Write the structure tokens for this entry.
Amino acid sequence: MSRTEFVIATAIILFVAFCLGWFANWIVHRFTRVAADDVAQLDRMSQELHEAEETRDQAITYLQQREAELTNQLAQTEAELRAAMDGLRDARHEAEELRAHIDRQRAG
């Protein structure tokens, strides 16, 4: 093999290696490239997720406020019920005393 044949063979091998490298690079970028539509879709999805989280936070805040209002209202109602029951107990006791007094008046 002469020097010229060796140079030509080396040039062909280097050219084939270059072509294979370029093709491999093209394949890798073809499969790993993110399309603009995909980026737009990811942006839209992230925005929707952010809005959903805000809505969830607002719902949680509303439910906590509503729970506090209902707890307060329940406490007030229970206090009113206790007061009404105490008043009813006192009224029954007074009615019993009045009946006993009337019975004593009739008997005596």
